[in-house]
Amino acid sequence: MIGVFDSGVGGLTVVKHILNKFNSDIVYLGDTARLPYGTKSSNTVIKYSLQSAEFLINLGVDAIVIACNTASSVAVEIVREKFDVPVFGVIEPAARYASKFKSVCVIGTESTVASGAYVRKIKKYNNDVEIEQRACPLFVPLVESGWIDDEITYMVAKRYLGNLNCDALILGCTHYPLLKNVIKTVTNDIELIDSGDTLTKTLDDYKDLFEGNGQLEFYTTDSKEKFAQLGRLFLGKRFNGVKLTDL
Ligand code: DGL
Predict the structure, then answer these.
(1) CATH architecture label of 2-89+199-244
(2) Residues with CB under 6 A from ligand 1
(3) Which of 65, 70, 230 to mutate to test the pocket of ligand 1 (most atoms within 8 A of CB)?
(4) Same CATH topology for 2-89+199-244 and 92-195?
(5) Residue 133 reports pLDDT greater than 90
(6) What is the pTM of this model?
(7) pLDDT confidence of 230, banded at 50, 70, 90?
(8) Looking at residue 114, what is its pLDDT?
(9) Phi/psi at 89 (nearest 5 deg)?
């Protein structure tokens, strides 16, 4: 069984990629009571990540996927050190893929951008890549409100990204893949890199771990109703209800 955690419902975009590839048994934790992580300090995000990982370990998971970019950017190594199961984050695979481009832009939450994690990882693979980072804090509440294809979302995207000049754009936040259409419209031909997608593409070597019976279980730390509403938006029919927990 795989444990996946995120600050909220957004990590279900990563679950979707995993389920497109494997028939995984997944227990998912969305720490909605403390969302957003993207405006918090790294110490706070590390503390929350360790608590989320511990919750999943206590449920008996064999591996942990940190679906949240903000948590992945500051906590992967720390979670790895503390727990004795494989821990996968979303930054490294996207950074590795992005390193083949001449110029890359990274968009994410304020905390992800401030951590510089994507920049460090891309440079590790190719020091010559030109990298620009932009925080796009309004995208998360727009998605949370279900304003996926809305005129306002389009205007915000244009303001954030309209003048972008690079070959590839890392969607460095769980929620941004839902805005792919809007982002594509304002960025023309730039290749979009979905960090959940690039993570999943690196999991072939872990097939034994990720193949299961397709059993899914969801936990939230706040309103079950709100989680369910967005859960269906993110995961469609695969979403089968959610339990409330406290960390
Ligand atoms: N899950 C977060 C991320 O991928 C976005 C939402 C938040 O700020 O907590 O960075």
Answers:
(1) 3-Layer(aba) Sandwich (3.40)
(2) 6-8, 10, 35-38, 68-70, 108-109, 112, 140, 173-175
(3) 70
(4) yes
(5) yes
(6) 0.96
(7) confident
(8) 97
(9) -115, 170
